[in-house]
Amino acid sequence: MSQRVGSTSLAFARVWHQVDARERVLGRLARSIAVTLMGKHKPIYDPAVDAGDYVVVTNASHVAVTGRKAEQKLYRHHTMYPGGLKEIPFKTMLQSKPEEILRRAVSGMLPKNKLRERRLERLKIFPGESHPYEANIAKRYDGPRN
């Protein structure tokens, strides 16, 4: 009997992963989340097919950064008005919108193509411990903390 899953609905079934961001390094956490959203952890990975999984991130307000990034990192956006460049320091962003920090980091690690926004829709980020997707979680990721 063959064990080949192939191009079946079982192979493309989306699994829900939960990641606890408490004391996890921002860049390393974002890389592992991006790999899961793209589906690179699956044997059926194809860059042109959106076969990734859902990722639920909790405790986003407790994410860690290395070096002096906490004092030096800036998040920039432009309002499209003259002189409308806005710069928000990392510490201010961590207090006001901690989920935006992780969303921008993961977005920067995804391929810049038409599948990027669809993959980011499957990323659910919560600043605290509680979230409404508890019944959907199939896997919990407890990787290295450094």
From TrEMBL:
<dbReference type="GO" id="GO:0003735">
    <property type="term" value="F:structural constituent of ribosome"/>
</dbReference>
<comment type="similarity">
    <text>Belongs to the universal ribosomal protein uL13 family.</text>
</comment>
<keyword id="KW-0689">Ribosomal protein</keyword>
<keyword id="KW-0687">Ribonucleoprotein</keyword>
<dbReference type="InterPro" id="IPR036899">
    <property type="entry name" value="Ribosomal_uL13_sf"/>
</dbReference>
<dbReference type="GO" id="GO:0017148">
    <property type="term" value="P:negative regulation of translation"/>
</dbReference>
<dbReference type="GO" id="GO:0006412">
    <property type="term" value="P:translation"/>
</dbReference>
<dbReference type="GO" id="GO:0005762">
    <property type="term" value="C:mitochondrial large ribosomal subunit"/>
</dbReference>
<dbReference type="InterPro" id="IPR005822">
    <property type="entry name" value="Ribosomal_uL13"/>
</dbReference>
<dbReference type="InterPro" id="IPR005823">
    <property type="entry name" value="Ribosomal_uL13_bac-type"/>
</dbReference>
<protein>
    <submittedName>
        <fullName>54S ribosomal protein L23, mitochondrial</fullName>
    </submittedName>
</protein>
<dbReference type="GO" id="GO:0003729">
    <property type="term" value="F:mRNA binding"/>
</dbReference>
<dbReference type="InterPro" id="IPR023563">
    <property type="entry name" value="Ribosomal_uL13_CS"/>
</dbReference>
<dbReference type="Pfam" id="PF00572">
    <property type="entry name" value="Ribosomal_L13"/>
</dbReference>
